[in-house]
Each structure stands twice: as structure tokens, then as C-alpha cells.
Amino acid sequence: MTGPVRIAGSVICTGSGRLTSPAGAVPAWTGSASSTGAVPLWAGSASSAGVGSASGRLVSSAGVVSVPERLTSSGIVVSFRCSKLRAVDTPEPFRADLSRSVRLLRAFRLEQSDPDFFYGTLARDTVAQLTTYTDLAGATVADVGGGPGYFADALRAVGARPVCVDCDAGEMRLRDGALPRDAVLGSALDLPLATGSVDVCFSSNVLEHVPNPLRMADEMVRVTRPGGIVYLSYTVWLGPWGGHETSPWHYLGGHYAARRYARRHGKPPKNVYGESMYAIGVAKPLAWARRCRDAEILDAVPRYLPRWARHVVHLPGIRELVTWNLLLVLRRR
């Protein structure tokens, strides 16, 4: 596929090519493109915003099609070749409804086979949710445990200034071998950030991977400025995906699940129980949030479930099984 575009972000397809814009300028862009070959002839428009890599969309008679791709930005109008397209939903205001839950569940099934699609989908959904609590335009956001930078890209696309903090340089290079922009190597248990230095401290599915989760939570509060937001989300151990790739066998014990995975796949799981994955429930972090002297709790909800299921987190016992992923949102005092 070839087509003239004006660029300031990421693209619409996988393939090869260059993205460029006028020297010194990175405007939002719109343009058109057309394709023949493996897919039926079509024409559509494309648009994006931000700098670096985010996600654009190509609108055609078939709907919205998109596959994010990291390309470089340098000079003027260019063309590129597309080898694959994937249908995605048109971006809409955040709504915690059943259709969103189903959409996320389908995306989770592609985590191993198509991580770019899965993490890109989750990142855009998460940032849309985060904007319901605070304005992200111009905000400095610490992405704790940000790994390859999917969430940082989505944050940057809405005007935030993310700082990606992770203790594993290898994890940060997973996407293209390079560190994410504005990456900082450091532990979530001792964040290398000054007290009160960020507007938002954000973490998605990291808390279950640290041996002292409440210390990490305290650190997130510490680095957030007064009035700033802490967004802390993690996978609940007794939920259906508590054991990550070893699920659902984690219900018979984390060590058993890890051994079974190794026997079946010929290698240990990426998330090893007791080493890089720990059993964490709803009760203790929720109690921590309620007792936190330096922050007030704004929300405690099952992150991926519809809004009408939000009260399940207040039902002892049941909440451990059905919450799936707990989201705690706090405001720094």
C-alpha cells in the first residue's frame, strides 16, 4: 500500500517505509491511502496525533482498520507499504459497559500471539479510563513497571509527558530492541523519583510481580504531588487469570502450576510463582488504600468488569474470585 500522508505519530499498518514531516514540525496529520492486492481495493483516510509511536486509524467502507507500527519521523511526505490490517473499534469516550469487557477479553486471548495488538488495545482503554479521573494534557506521568512502553505511547498520544520506570532493561527493549523514550531504570520498591515530582503515578499489572506490594503502593503515593492522582491496578491471585500463563492451574497451587507449565511447554513460565509473581488478593491493598494517611481513595473497582459490577469489591470472599483485576484510584493529600 502507498499513499501520501502528513505525519506526527504512529501508523496504521505493519510493513515497511518512512514517516516524515516538514523539518522541525510535528503536526497532527490527516491523509489518504489506497490498496490493492491481498485485500480488496479500498480507499480511506488516516489520522493521528502525538510524536513517536501511538496508533492511527484507516477508515474505509469496511469500517476502521489498524495495526500499530513503530516508524521513524524525519522530513516530508512519504509512502509506505502495508502487509497486514486488523479491524479495531473507532475510539470513543470511555464507557465501562459489557461490550468493553468482551472486547478486552478477546484481546487478552492474543497476548502471546500478537502482543502489540493486545497491549496497544489495553493501553488505549486504560488511558481513556484514566482521563475520567484527571486531565492528562501536559501532565507528568510516572508509568511504574512500564516495560516496552505501550502505556507511555498511549499517554503521550493524549498530551501527557510519561516517564517509564522499570527494573528490567531487557523487558523495556522487548518491542524493537530500543529503550522507550524517557525511560528510567529503577525499582518499583524504591522509585528513582523525587517526592511529589509527578502529577500522576500510574501502574498496570505490576503489583503482583513485586515481593512487597504495599511498599510499592507507598512509593507511588510518595512521588505524586499533592492533588495528583495514583492509578494502581493489578491482577488478583484467586481470579481466573491470577496465575497468568499458568492459569487456571494456580488454583491447585502456584508451584504446582509452574511445574505443570514447564512439563507441557518444555520451559519454565515467564512468571514464576514466588520469584516474579506473587499471590495478592483484594483485601489487603483495599485496606491499605482506606488507611493511607497521605492520600484519599477515590475509587476501588474491578478494572475490566462493567460498571454495574463495581460493588463486588466490597463483598468479602466473593471479591477474591470475581474481581479479576482491582483498580485503586487515590488523590494525594
Name of the level-1 CATH class of the largest domain: Alpha Beta
Q: Total number of β-strand segments? A: 13
Distance between the termini: 52 Å
Oligomer: single chain
The largest pleated sheet is described as: 7 strands, mixed
Helix content: 10-25%
Which structural class is indicated by helix and strand composition? alpha/beta
Looking at this structure, what is the CATH superfamily of the largest domain? Vaccinia Virus protein VP39
- Described by the principal axes of the CA atoms, the overall outline is globular
Radius of gyration equals 21 Å
Averaged pLDDT, please? 78
Account of the protein in words:
- The longest helix is centred in the middle third of the chain and has 16 residues, at 115-130.
- This protein has eight helices and 13 strands.
- The protein has helices at residues 98-108, 115-130, 150-157, 169-172, 213-223, 254-265, 283-291, 318-322, and strands spanning 14-17, 29-35, 42-48, 57-60, 63-65, 80-84, 140-144, 161-166, 183-185, 198-204, 224-235, 295-302, 325-332.
- Residues 1-91 have low confidence and may be disordered.
- It is of the alpha/beta class and 333 residues long.
- Helix 4 links the parallel strand 8 (161-166) and strand 9.
- It has two domains: 14-84, no CATH class; 98-236 and 280-332, 3-Layer(aba) Sandwich (Rossmann fold).
- The chain has a seven-stranded mixed sheet, sandwiched between helices. Strands 2-3-4-5 form a four-stranded antiparallel sheet, with no helix packed on it.
- This is Methyltransferase domain-containing protein.
- Keywords: Methyltransferase, Transferase.
- One of its GO terms (molecular function) is S-adenosylmethionine-dependent methyltransferase activity.
- InterPro entries: Methyltransf_11, SAM-dependent_MTases_sf.
